[in-house]
Amino acid sequence: MAVTTTERQAVRAAKTDAFVTVLAAGAALGGLLFGFDTSTMNSAMSGIRATMGLSSAALGFVAAIALIGCAVGAWFAGPIAARLGRDRVMLLAGLLILVGRWPSRSAESSCRWGAIAS
Question: What is the Cβ-side half-sphere exposure of residue 96, based on CA atoms within 13 angstroms?
Answer without folding.
Answer: 7
